[in-house]
Amino acid sequence: MQTDPIGIFDSGLGGLTVLRVLRELLPHENCIYFGDTAHLPYGNKSPETILRYSLESAHFLIQQQIKLLVIACHSACSAALESIRKDLDIPVIGIVEQGIDEITRRYSDGTIALLATRATVHSGLYERLLEQRNPALKLFSLACPLFVPLVEEGYEAHPISTQIIREHLQLLKPKAPKAALLGCTHFPLLRPLIQQELGPDIPLIDPASACAAQTKTTLIAHDLLNPQTSPGTTQFFVSSDPEKFRLHSKTFLGHPIEHVNEA
Ligand code: DGL
């Protein structure tokens, strides 16, 4: 089982920002990434629909004999983490729990802003987990539904994005948050503009590193770390339009992908 791959899924390209960090931390692991591009975006769909798509995505990866599953998509995690855990008999790492871990490690009280999709905000999962972990910490959750299409369409450095980000984030300023959690796979690509808008004193937290670290800890705890010394492989699958995914992937992953399979 140790040489089996890690499975990681997202609604589309965004989870590549998580895969990128995972690969850096665990270079000897084999990975299989699944992007559910046929159903992207998850973030403006109903909880029932996201649950259905997420279970299908998880099951696709199970068929590929994965040893551990990473749910990189915050919207999927918010709607389906519990059901996926009940359904699978392998360890499941959810990005939302890692976001909460990171916040509680860094702060003991005050308000933290959560920037996320509508589905993630409406699920209330971040609030519930934070309340359990540290009731002295409060979350101010802000749905930013226009941010995902900006990134998907390659507008992450365009002046129109500055304007849209400003419009959304003005609601945060009166709340004086200590930090802002990037609660969506696409938002790390808007980091410079979000930082510019919030100012240099508000740290932006991307849970991708915590997610990768937890994956490593879990592999060690289950004696599942791959002993191979050569670099691991990564295979990419999507549910629609592999070529579009391949062409856009470099922005998210940092390097080009040679081949993407249609699932
Ligand atoms: N991957 C989603 C998330 O992290 C963003 C894109 C979508 O709405 O599907 O919430």
Pick out its properties.
four-stranded parallel beta sheet; 10 strands; 263 residues; alpha/beta; six-stranded parallel beta sheet; binds D-glutamic acid; 45% helix; 11 helices
Radius of gyration: 17 Å
Task: Count all strands and give the number.
Answer: 10
Question: What is the helix fraction of residues, given as a range?
Answer: 40-55%
- Secondary-structure-based class equals alpha/beta
Order of helices and strands: EHEHEHEHEHHEHHEHEHEHE
Strand order of the largest sheet: 4-3-1-2-9-10
The fraction of residues assigned to DSSP E strands is 15-25%
Which term fits the overall shape? globular
The chain-level mean pLDDT equals: 97
- Number of helical regions: 11
Short note summarizing the structure:
The chain has 263 residues and is an alpha/beta fold. The chain has helices at 16-25, 47-63, 74-87, 95-106, 118-123, 125-133, 147-152, 159-169, 191-198, 208-221, 242-253; strands at residues 6-10, 31-35, 68-71, 92-94, 110-116, 137-143, 179-183, 204-205, 234-238, 261-262.
